[in-house]
Write a structure and sequence with these properties.
Elements (H helix, E strand, L loop, with lengths): L3 E6 L3 H13 L3 E7 L3 H11 L3 E3 L2 H7 L4 E4 L6 H10 L3 E5 L6 H14 L3 E4 L6 H11 L6 E9 L11 H4 L1 H5 L2 H11 L3 E9 L16 E8 L4 E7 L7 E8 L2 E5 L9 E2 L5 E2 L6 H4 L1 H17 L7 H20 L3 E2 L1
Parallel strand pairs: 1-2, 1-4, 2-3, 4-5, 5-6, 7-10
Antiparallel strand pairs: 7-11, 8-9, 8-15, 9-10, 11-12, 13-14
Helix pairs in contact: 1-11, 4-5, 5-12, 6-9, 9-12
């Protein structure tokens, strides 16, 4: 059987995680083209991935190379135009989160995808992580009773690119980092969001206060779901100490925790009475297997003509709650959805 040919759009950190999976980790796929606005990065990625060619413009890739699907890991503010162009060209689409910058963009993306009948999957890799899947099963089996409170920690180690600092363009920390928290909470609780109240501030990046007055590096979010469950998200980037992704769900008959700050189950106890553990440094390590599983799932959906488990509606719901939370930060008031 001929392999599914992919075009990678955006050869940064996340893009290369997916691209390496498609080129080296999955037998049914191959990267044939790389697109990145930085020519040097595009060329280096193409060499590593043994791609046929590299481009600085997606339109040129569409004209010059044949492929079946795209993996979009470019900045959020070009997701909409890229997804729409790919769908109109009949390409199946894997798109990293966040889905888009606005709900209007998301709506247009959904209409175009449906019109062209292409597969679409959003990059919420936690849904493919074995720990989160185990937690989902435990909740569904009623082992902790009925969920009543869910708390999620999402902290990134280093500051993303400059465009991220413009909240009007990126939707900020809550979109770029905490989209995963919003989605996984909604998925595990099994309910839509009803209300959000959020507070945020810039504690760690004074150099951005003048140029980007709306920028925030730390956020506290209180939530209520339509089924009555309460929620909290604690977000920070740059956290500087490492990558921290944890969740706790309290039920009427018990509780469960997902994740740990500890990277390995190795503990050093030295002659100075110190207990030393190594913390998680990167999402690429912590969720390595989950990224591979979500990429495999997308490929299987193309091969078997099935709809992905995590689709455009999930991306839209995450954007909706992020926009509402940012409105709450600006107004200082709770926002109902």
């Amino acid at each position: 059987m001929e392999k599914i040919k992919f075009c990678l759009i955006g050869a940064g950190r996340a893009g290369m995680v997916h691209a390496r999976n498609y080129e080296f980790g999955i037998t049914d796929t191959k990267i044939v083209a790389v697109v990145d606005t930085n020519k040097k990065i595009a060329e280096e990625a193409a060499i590593e991935l043994s791609a046929n060619n590299f481009f600085i413009d997606f339109e040129e890739a569409l004209r010059c190379e044949k492929f079946d699907a795209v993996c979009i890991a470019a900045p959020t503010f070009i997701h909409a135009e890229t997804v729409i162009r790919a769908a109109d060209a009949g390409k199946h689409i894997f798109c990293e989160k966040p889905l888009s910058s606005t709900l209007e963009e998301a709506d247009q993306m959904e209409k175009t995808i449906k019109k062209n009948q292409v597969k679409f999957q959003i990059g919420f890799m936690r849904r493919f992580d074995q720990n989160f899947l185990k937690a989902k099963k435990i909740i569904e089996q009623g082992e902790i009773g009925t969920p009543i409170l869910v708390k999620s920690v999402g902290r990134g180690p280093g500051l993303p690119p400059k465009w991220y600092c413009d909240v009007k363009r990126s939707n900020g920390l809550l979109a770029e980092v905490n989209s995963h928290d919003f989605d996984s909470m909604r998925w595990l609780v099994g309910s839509e969001y009803e209300q959000v109240f959020a507070m945020a501030d810039n504690f760690k990046c004074p150099q951005y206060k003048e140029k980007y007055p709306d920028f925030y590096d730390t956020a506290a979010v209180n939530l209520r779901f339509k089924n009555g469950v309460l929620g909290m998200i604690d977000g920070c980037c740059p956290a500087t100490y490492g990558y921290d992704a944890r969740m706790e769900i309290l039920g009427t008959e018990g509780m469960l925790q997902i994740g740990s700050q500890q990277a390995y189950s190795v503990l050093v106890w030295n002659n100075k009475s110190q207990l030393i553990k190594e913390g998680n440094k990167s999402w690429r390590i912590l969720f390595k297997d989950a990224y591979l599983e979500e990429d495999k799932h997308f490929v299987n959906c193309i091969l078997n003509n099935e709809d992905p488990k995590v689709g455009i509606k999930d991306g839209e719901k995450a954007i909706e709650i992020v926009i509402a939370a940012n409105k709450s930060i600006k107004t200082g008031k709770p926002v109902k959805l």
